[in-house]
Design goal:
151 residues; mainly alpha; 3 helices
Length: 151
C-alpha cells in the first residue's frame, strides 16, 4: 500500500471523519431534493411565463397584421385615387390642347385675313407714289386774288 492509501484508510476509521462524511452526505441529499423542488417550481413558473409571453406575442402579431392590412387597403385606395386623377388630368389636358390648337388656328386665320389687305394696300400706296414721281409736277394756277393784288 502506498502512503496516500494508508492516510485515507486511517482517516476513514476516525469517528469524527465518519460523522463528518455522514453529515456531508445528508446535506448533499437534502440540497439535491431542494434543488429538484426549486427546479420544478421554476419550471412550472417558467412554463406559465412562457405561455403568457407567447399569448401576448400572438395578440401583438394579430394586431400588427390587422394594422398592416388596413394600411394596405388605405394605400391601395390612395393609389387608385391618384391614378384616376392622373387619367382625368390627362383627358383634360388633351381636351385643352385640342381647344388651344383650334383657337390658335382660328386666330392665325383671322390674322392672315387682316394682314393680307394691309399688304395689298401698302403695295398699292407704293405703286401710286412711284407713278406720281414719274409724272411731271403740274403748273400752279393763279387764283384771281393773287393776280389782283399784283396789279
Amino acid at each position: 500500500m502506498t502512503l496516500t492509501q494508508k492516510i485515507i484508510q486511517n482517516l476513514s476509521r476516525n469517528k469524527n471523519v465518519q460523522s463528518f462524511l455522514a453529515d456531508f452526505d445528508k446535506v448533499s441529499t437534502e440540497l439535491k431534493g431542494k434543488s429538484k423542488q426549486l427546479n420544478q417550481l421554476w419550471t412550472s413558473e417558467k412554463h406559465k411565463t412562457v405561455k403568457q409571453a407567447y399569448a401576448q406575442y400572438q395578440k401583438m402579431v394579430k394586431s400588427i397584421s390587422k394594422a398592416q392590412m388596413e394600411l394596405d387597403r388605405e394605400v391601395s385606395k390612395a393609389i387608385s385615387l391618384i391614378v384616376r386623377s392622373a387619367d382625368d388630368v390627362e383627358k383634360n389636358l388633351s381636351a385643352y390642347k385640342k381647344k388651344a390648337v383650334a383657337q390658335k388656328a382660328k386666330i392665325e386665320k383671322a390674322l392672315s385675313k387682316k394682314n393680307s389687305p394691309r399688304k395689298s394696300a401698302h403695295a398699292a400706296k407704293k405703286q401710286a407714289t412711284t407713278r406720281k414721281a414719274a409724272r411731271k409736277p403740274a403748273a400752279k394756277k393763279n387764283l384771281g386774288r393773287a393776280s389782283a393784288t399784283r396789279a
